[in-house]
Amino acid sequence: MQVKFIFCCELLLVVLLSVLSVSAYAAFPQLKLEVISSGEVFAPLALTNAGDGSDRLFVVDQRGKIQILDTGSLLPTPFLDIGSKLTPPNPFYDERGLLSVAFHPDYATLNTFGNGKIYVFYNAPQGGGTPTNPINCKSVIAEYTLSGDPNVIDPNSERILFSFNKPQLNHDGGQLVFGPDHMLYIGTGDGGGADDNDAGHTGGSAAKPANALGNAQDMTKYMGKILRIDPTGVNPGEYVIPADNPFANTGGGVLPEIWADGFRNPWRFSFDDGSGGTDRLFVADVGQGKYEEIDIVEKGGNYGWRAREGLHSFAPSTPAPGPFEDPIAEYPHPGVVSPNPPVTGISITGGFVYRGSAIPDLIGKYIFGDWSNTSAEPGNGRLLGLEETAPDVWGPVTALNIEGLSQGFLGKFITAFGRDEDGELYVVARSSLDHIFDANPSFPSGVIYKIVAVPEPATWLLLASAGVLLLIRSRFLHHH
Length: 480
Description:
This protein is about 10% helix and about 35% strand.
C-alpha cells in the first residue's frame, strides 16, 4: 500500500512537471479556431481592417464584392460591388476576379489625400491578342472613395491607376498592401500557363524553349513582380514613382514601378509592421510542381523564378541575370523528397507575423498555410508556422497544433489570412470551388475563423499542486 501511494505521487509529479515543461518550451502554443462567419460569403479571398478604430472586418469575395463584418454580423449591403466589371468566369476553373483591397493609411484622417480612399486589384475583360501574344484579360489597380455612408464606397468614384494585359487566366498574384512607408505594394503573378514559358511569356511558346527568359525575369513587364508606387493623383493614370525605387531611373524600358522581381505567383504577402515588428516584407510564392517558398523581400532583390524554384534549379538555361535571393524557408510537394518530411503541400497561402497581445507565445512567429493537399472538394488546407530561432535563422516549417484538427489540416481550402486592428489573426477558407463559376450559386461556402489561444492550466496552480504532492510524499515517507 505504501509503495502504491508513493508511486502515484511520483507519477502525478512527473505529469505536472511535464505539462510545465511543455508550456515553457513549446515553439508554438496550442491554438483553436473560432468561427466568425459561415455560409455568408461565396468565395472569400482576403480579409482586412480599415485602421479607423471601428473594429470592422472587410471580406473580399472573388465574385466582386467587399462585405463588412461588424461585431460578428455580415452587413446586408456590400461595402463595394464591382461584379459587373469583372472578366466573365471560366466554367471549369478560374483564378481571376476581385482579388484584394487595401485601405489608404490616411483613410480615417480628415483633410488628407487618402481620407476615405481604398485600392482594389481585379481582372477585367480585354480583347485582342494573337496566338503568339495572347491576351486573356487585363489586371486593374484602381482607387475608390467613400460615399456619405461610412459603410458604402461610391461605386462611381473609380480612378484606374494603371492596368496591364495578361496572357492566361491563372497566376494573377493580386495582393495590395500599404507598407510602413505609406507606399502601395502590388504583387503580380507571372501571367499564367505553366513554367513561365508559354505564348505571351518572354521567349516562351507552345514549344517550351529551354532558354526562355520568362515574364518574371523580364524587367519590361509588370508580371512576376512586387511593384511599389505612391498612389497620389487626381486623374486616371496618375501616381508617383517613389524616388528610392531601385529602378526608378534605369531607363531602357525597365519599369520604374518594380521593387523586386523573380516571382511565380506571390499569393499573399504582408509586412511585419505590428507593435514590436521588424517591418520586413514576407512573401509566399507558389511553386510550380516541387517546392513552395517564403521570401523576405528586399529592395531590388531577384527571387529566382523561373531559373529557380525555391532553392533548387528549375530552368538552368534561362538567361536570367541573378544573383538570386534565397527563400527563408521552403517545403516540398508530396513525393518530391523521400521519405516525405513532416510538412508537404501543393500551394502556399501567405499569412502574417503575429504581433497581437491575446496569444503571447505566438508573438514574432509567422503564421501561414497551404491551400490544400487535394483539389477535390471540400479541400484540405493546412495551418503552418515558421519561427526565427536566431537573427536571420529560421526553424523548420511546422504544422500548427490546432484543437480538434489533426496535424493542422482544416478540411477546407485555405485562401487567405487576415488581421484585425488589434493584430489578431484570422483564417479565410471555403469548402467549395464550383460555385464561383455558377450564375446562380446555391450556397455560400466561405468560412472565416479567428485564431485564438487554448487556455492552459495556470502555472501557479500547477506549481502549487506539485508542491502539495511533494509535501505529502515527504511526510508519508517520514512517518512510514
